[in-house]
Design goal:
This protein is mainly beta and 66 residues long. The protein has a single domain, classed as SH3 type barrels (Roll). The chain is 0% helix and 38% strand. It is built from no helices and four strands. It has a four-stranded antiparallel beta barrel.
Length: 66
Amino acid sequence: MDGKHRKDISPGLRVAIVLKQDQRSGKRTEGIVKTILTSSSFHPHGIKVRLEDGQVGRVQEILDDM
């Protein structure tokens, strides 16, 4: 899944995000979702989340389902 729909993302899910500083290169960072920051149900560039390690970025891919 691509992480553009809020309903597909929940805390504890392993995802690949793009950090703000990596948007041009497209470099992905993997981690576990701690908090969902986007309040709308859909975002064309990916739902913004905070990972358990504190990094913030937009979900590009959901790596596993709980």
